[in-house]
Design goal:
The protein is mainly beta. Helices cover 13% and strands 34% of the residues. It has one domain: Hexapeptide repeat proteins (UDP N-Acetylglucosamine Acyltransferase, domain 1, 3 Solenoid). The protein has one helix spanning 2-26; strands spanning 37-40, 45-47, 52-53, 57-61, 70-73, 78-79, 84-87, 90-93, 98-99, 104-106, 108-110, 130-132, 135-137, 142-143, 148-149, 154-155, 160-161, 166-167, 175-178, 183-189, 194-197. Strands 3-6-9-14-17-19-20-21 form an eight-stranded mixed sheet, with no helix packed on it. A six-stranded parallel sheet has the order 1-4-7-10-15-18, with no helix packed on it. The protein is globular, with a radius of gyration of 18 Å.
């Protein structure tokens, strides 16, 4: 307790106690949910054992008459400050994944811009048809600051996504991807036990 007081200071320590009490009351499986937090559609959250969050986590789980959307959070997942997750069909985040601050993950989009049906640009974006594709993030993934992960993406186990990347295509396991759009620049060579450039 004295160590925590030294680390956080008096007011920080008091906030920590408040947040821990809030977590125990409303999210007993989690380690700590730091306030403020905004969660719409709490019933759609599965898992979350030992979840740790920073401040201003925003989760929007959009219920519909035909689909029951699910946000599955694995064990020991950590979200830093200002993470925003939007779920219309399904997002799965694997065990031990670490997500930096200001990351945006969404499985849906306002409008259709490919395939047979196209939204018209004169149509109000909020009124456009909601299109959705599941997002899957593997275990032991590290996602850097300001990353955006778009609908339909799979990120494999052990992958690293560099800061400010836009993930618009699948990222294989044990690789490092950076950029907008994100592209793989390194892969982990298990035989040499080192990261090698592509």
């Amino acid at each position: 307790m004295i160590k925590s007081l030294k680390i956080y200071g008096l007011f920080g320590f008091m906030r920590l106690i408040r947040d821990k009490l809030f977590t125990m009351l409303f999210y007993p499986k989690a380690r700590i949910i730091r306030l403020p937090v905004y969660i719409r559609g709490k019933k759609g959250i599965q898992g979350g054992e030992s979840l740790t969050t920073g401040v201003n986590l925003r989760i929007d789980i959009i219920n519909s008459e035909t689909i029951t959307p699910v946000l599955h959070i694995g064990k020991n997942v950590e979200f830093n400050d200002y993470v925003h997750i939007g779920v219309a069909v399904g997002i799965s985040i694997g065990d031990n994944t670490l997500i930096a601050s200001k990351v945006f993950i969404s499985d849906h989009n306002h409008g259709s811009y490919a395939g047979e049906i196209h939204s018209h640009p004169d149509e109000n974006p909020i009124d456009r048809v909601l299109t959705s594709k599941k997002v899957t993030i593997g275990k032991n993934v590290w996602i850097g600051e300001y990353v955006a992960i778009l609908p339909g993406i799979t990120i494999g186990d052990g992958a690293i996504i560099g800061a400010m990347s836009v993930v618009s295509r699948d990222i294989p396991a044990y690789s490092i991807a950076v950029g907008a759009p994100a592209r793989v620049i390194k892969k982990f060579d298990k035989t040499k036990s080192e990261w090698t450039s592509i």
